[in-house]
């Protein structure tokens, strides 16, 4: 099963041209949704205006070589290794989900558009990507997301931002179940899970405007801009690690004592706080 292309058996019912057209349609929906998200939330305008303000307040000029170095560091840190996550469980979960998604999408395109991939490495990677999505996604949803140190949200409490992770989980889960039952000869169940797989996939790629999908594009840009601001000295940043019980910190941020009173586990600790994250 793991080395068999589940899409190859669909050609008897669905032509390769229709499957390829569906992939192209999903790409168009992602691009359109991302553009609409930028217009609605004014993300591009925010980055542009913030960049202009930083340039005016800059204490030094960042050269081209240094910019390239900062870009490489951003990709290596915030993108490839997700080092911004302080909690190791959250970081591993995120990496499993991120790389699982990349592998799953790329191999899907390869199997539908590529050469003969009816069996072999590419289908194996497709199943591996789906499994990584399942492990990382469900770990986040049932164990990390509900932790008081993260978001403290019950697994059954749903928000609009959860469309992304839930449709992602549904896509990978139904995709695996479709492949399992199809390869096992249970064509009825296989077709049922295929239909659910398509529904989940369509929801994932058509709801960019309302979900956290576009977040994956904005996050690296925000991380790079943060490094640039720090490099040119245009903004004083709070250190990444700080003691909430420090009077100097409390004097600068007067809301901290109240926050500490509501969160006694933070009292007297030199901690690195991590803002709630979503997929």
Short summary:
This is Adenylyl-sulfate reductase. The chain crosses the membrane at residues 20-39, 95-113, 125-143, 163-181, 187-210. This protein folds into 2 domains: 8-232, Fumarate Reductase Cytochrome B subunit (Up-down Bundle), CATH 1.20.950; 242-271, no CATH class.
- What is the residue-mean pLDDT, rounded to a whole number? 80
Main beta sheet, described? 2 strands, antiparallel
Taking pLDDT < 50 over at least 5 consecutive residues as the criterion, the unreliable ranges are 237-241, 258-279
Number of domains: 2
What topology emerges from the helices and strands here?
Blueprint: H1 16-41, H2 43-57, H3 64-81, H4 88-113, H5 121-144, H6 163-183, H7 187-206, H8 215-232, E1 242-243, H9 247-252, H10 256-262, E2 270-271
Helix pairs in contact: 2-8, 3-8, 4-5, 5-6, 6-7
What does this structure look like?
This protein has helices at 16-41, 43-57, 64-81, 88-113, 121-144, 163-183, 187-206, 215-232, 247-252, 256-262, and strands spanning 242-243, 270-271. It has 279 residues and is mainly alpha-helical. It has two domains: 8-232, Fumarate Reductase Cytochrome B subunit (Up-down Bundle), CATH 1.20.950; 242-271, no CATH class. The chain crosses the membrane at residues 20-39, 95-113, 125-143, 163-181, 187-210. Keywords: Membrane, Transmembrane, Transmembrane helix. It comes from Thiohalophilus thiocyanatoxydans.
């Amino acid at each position: 099963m793991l080395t068999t292309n589940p899409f190859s058996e669909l050609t008897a019912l669905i032509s390769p041209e229709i499957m390829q057209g569906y992939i192209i349609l999903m790409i168009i929906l992602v691009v359109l949704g991302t553009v609409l998200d930028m217009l609605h939330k004014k993300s591009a305008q925010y980055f542009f205006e913030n960049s202009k303000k930083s340039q005016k307040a800059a204490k030094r000029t960042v050269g081209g070589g240094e910019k390239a170095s900062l870009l490489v560091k951003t990709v290596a840190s915030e993108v490839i290794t997700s080092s911004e996550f302080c909690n190791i469980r959250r970081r591993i979960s995120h990496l499993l989900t991120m790389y699982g998604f990349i592998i799953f999408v790329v191999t899907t395109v390869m199997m539908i558009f590529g050469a003969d991939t009816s069996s072999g490495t590419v289908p194996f990677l497709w199943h591996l990507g789906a499994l990584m999505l399942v492990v990382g996604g469900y770990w986040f949803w049932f164990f990390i997301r509900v932790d008081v140190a993260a978001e403290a949200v019950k697994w059954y409490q749903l928000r609009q931002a959860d469309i992304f992770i839930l449709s992602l989980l549904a896509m990978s889960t139904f995709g695996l179940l479709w492949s399992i039952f199809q390869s096992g000869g249970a064509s009825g169940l296989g077709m049922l899970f295929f239909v659910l797989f398509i529904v989940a996939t369509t929801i994932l790629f058509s709801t960019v405007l309302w979900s956290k999908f576009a977040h994956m594009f904005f996050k690296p840009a925000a991380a790079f801009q943060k490094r640039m601001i720090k490099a040119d000295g245009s903004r004083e940043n709070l250190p990444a690690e700080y003691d909430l019980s420090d009077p100097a910190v409390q004097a600068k941020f007067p809301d901290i004592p109240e926050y500490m009173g509501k969160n006694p586990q933070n009292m007297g600790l030199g901690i690195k706080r991590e803002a709630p994250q979503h997929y």
